């Protein structure tokens, strides 16, 4: 993708609020990224929201931005658009991205890149047939702490790695999954939504883990639904008094062997109370080698999502000061992904990486459902 001219971006889903508005759009405007991209068009679900978003970003980029709405074939076929970024509700990922692929445009697609393995496979196959260059929003691998871990492992800082384990908590305060849920997010508690705890936070962690340590060759998983019912809160976080049945597990135990021979173990629990008064650890990831250990940890309420919250890093029990750590976080990680893609080199995730990760999640679901080891 490297060239002297900036990549002209059409952005689907860059509206007033949400992940795209908070992280993806602003990261495109970061000083280190801005010269590589030029936002020229925006598409949302209505003419009003599209115009409002275009007006907002025109002030930031200093030129007119085209406003589209509805069918993404319109923005995809704009001759002034080189590249289409898509960050919309996962239920419409396939519907939105296929016209972009048909138009032959390189693209960004937010993770989970489709509601199911079948959809991700269709998207990946279509992109491959068109020989498109792709970027997927698995930005955890660009965390500054994770990048430092990669450097330490490559330098042999802890010797040969034998095992790794993750212990994480996705607390009720996230109000995305039971027992407490925002009314507008109830779809995330549907089994086939593509937005469950397994799909999003655990999916992000697994991509980062396999990026650093290698792919799973086999695994065994169990899950449990400790919170079968969710209680709704409104946008002011006030309980509405209404409840709903949850379709998804909230506790997961995943164990397997990686291609490198490493034993991996992940335990995720969800829905319990968080906060210092509980004494509950939010996130711990240890990598054990024959000569020492690496530890990533966080007590932040969103600490179990290291693709969003930068964890602390320890080598052999001593904290490592990570260069640029004061800037670290989701915005910084997303900016790194944009830069690497524009330069045509680096560790950014593609639709093929998303497909591999989706196959891993599917294996976990199958193992938990059928009670057997799955070979990948």
UniProtKB/TrEMBL annotation:
Residues annotated as domain Gal80p-like C-terminal: 146-298
Gene3D superfamilies for this protein: Dihydrodipicolinate Reductase, domain 2, NAD(P)-binding Rossmann-like Domain
Signal peptide as annotated in the record: none
Organism: Cyclocybe aegerita (Black poplar mushroom)
Domain annotation Gfo/Idh/MocA-like oxidoreductase N-terminal: ranges: 7-137
Keyword Oxidoreductase on entry: yes
Molecular-function GO terms, alphabetical: nucleotide binding; oxidoreductase activity
Keyword Oxidoreductase: yes
Keyword annotations of the record: Oxidoreductase
Name by which UniProt lists this protein: Gfo/Idh/MocA-like oxidoreductase N-terminal domain-containing protein
UniProt cross-references to Pfam families, sorted A to Z: Gal80p_C-like, GFO_IDH_MocA
